[in-house]
Automatic annotation (TrEMBL):
One GO cellular component, as annotated: cytoplasm
Record has ATP-binding as a keyword: no
Signal peptide feature range: none
InterPro entries xrefs: aa-tRNA-synth_II/BPL/LPL, HisRS-like_core, HisRS/HisZ
Protein name: ATP phosphoribosyltransferase regulatory subunit
Domain Class II Histidinyl-tRNA synthetase (HisRS)-like catalytic core: 12-198, 222-348
Binding annotation for L-histidine: D66, F67, T68, R93, Q107, E111, R300, Y305, Y306
Protein keywords: Glycosyltransferase, Transferase
One of the protein's GO biological processes: histidyl-tRNA aminoacylation
GO MF term (any one): histidine-tRNA ligase activity
Length: 362
């Protein structure tokens, strides 16, 4: 059945009404979005997931891959504070790795921009989604990217290495490869060793071909040499990172485990204080935190602009389906799109087509 069927649109309308009754202002965004902003945020990788077109007057455009970026842009250009928005409409994603999945589907979202109580806002969004989706009996998963980023920022190593690890937090395989290299666990490739030993690495290299100038290439080689002189990460630091990534428990027990890890990696303590306040806020909103799952590595493969609390709702009886809903905190995104201004922000999206597939909410 098509995700754009009347039944799916009816589910979307019900969700919109639910979020409006919760205090959200309904907004809309253009289906065509400027590609340069999305490319700046995600890099060229997004081309493999988005539909790109060329407009004679507006330049390169993308069919809307999600609503969050344009909603943030709208709010940062002059939205009131605090603000709550809801929206519904089609998004477009190429599905080359999952051809069985729809490449055009409806999203309904709810976004909160509020600097007064970020952890309370996290709990507000999660609890609303929990209530809206309760008839489906879904499994909820939660995590916190902020704990891992705090751990990386607290590593006793060079700024260059910390920045490299931060760039690849959302690419677990690349992150692991870098971590092993920085810890001295993996050998330096012979070609790189030869490059670093050469007195003049570009001697006999022939003409410069490509977009990088000779000066840029030499600067990159100098950076590699500086990195080679950096002391390896200690086994204790790597073990602490591994311990964080292995945490998978209900929320209270996860917090307890992470507090133990913080003894050896105190840089995560502030992020853990936020986690503790979020648990309390969720409890006050009627969420049974004693059975709510928390996974420290959750969200690392599919939530690239989230930098704090993350969550998802899944149908355990249909593991073949994508998540029915996902969301999280994206404070850094407001900073990047706000031209220096920023505001704590959290939100999420629901896929009405998945709701229809699972039998509907009505």
């Amino acid at each position: 059945m098509s995700v754009l069927s009347p039944a799916t649109r009816a589910e979307a309308a019900r969700l919109l009404t639910f979020f409006e009754e919760a205090g959200a202002l309904r907004v809309d965004c253009g289906i065509l979005q400027p590609a340069d902003i999305l490319l700046d945020l995600y890099g060229e990788d997004i081309r493999a997931r988005a539909y790109v077109t060329q407009d004679p007057s507006r330049g390169e455009q993308m069919l809307r891959p999600d609503f969050t970026v344009p909603v943030v842009q709208m709010h940062m250009s002059g939205g009131a504070e605090p603000a709550r928005y809801t929206y519904a409409g089609e998004v477009f994603r190429r599905q080359e790795d999952h051809p069985e999945r729809e490449n055009e589907y409806l999203q309904v979202g709810y976004e909160v921009f509020d600097r007064a109580d970020p952890e309370g806002a996290d709990a507000e969004v999660f609890a609303l989604f929990h209530t809206a989706l309760a008839p489906l009996g879904l499994h909820a998963a939660t995590g916190d990217i902020g704990i891992l980023t705090a751990a990386v920022e607290g590593l006793d190593t060079s700024a260059r290495r910390r920045a490299a690890l931060m760039r690849h937090i959302w690419r677990p395989r690349r992150f692991r490869a870098l971590l092993d290299r920085f810890a001295g666990r993996s050998p330096v490739p012979a070609t790189r060793s030869a490059l670093l030993r050469a007195k003049d690495a570009l001697a006999g290299a022939g003409p410069i071909i490509g977009l990088r100038s000779r000066a840029e290439i030499e600067a990159r080689i100098d950076a590699l040499r500086e990195d080679a002189r950096t002391a390896p990460l200690s086994e204790a630091q790597v073990a602490a990172l591994d311990a964080i990534l292995a945490v998978r428990e209900t929320c209270p027990f996860a917090l307890e485990q992470l507090r133990d890890i913080a003894v050896d990696l105190p840089a995560i303590s502030v992020a853990l204080d936020k986690f503790a306040r979020r648990i309390d806020a969720l409890d006050k909103r009627g969420i049974d935190v004693d059975v709510l799952d928390f996974e420290a590595s959750y969200g690392r493969t599919s939530m690239e602009y989230y930098d704090g609390f993350v969550f998802g709702f899944y149908a355990d009886r249909r593991p073949d389906l994508p998540p029915v809903a996902t969301g999280g905190r994206y404070d850094a995104l407001t900073r990047r799109l706000g031209g220096g201004a920023e505001i704590p922000a959290v939100g999420g999206v629901i896929r009405p087509g998945q709701i229809e597939t699972l039998g509907g909410l009505a």
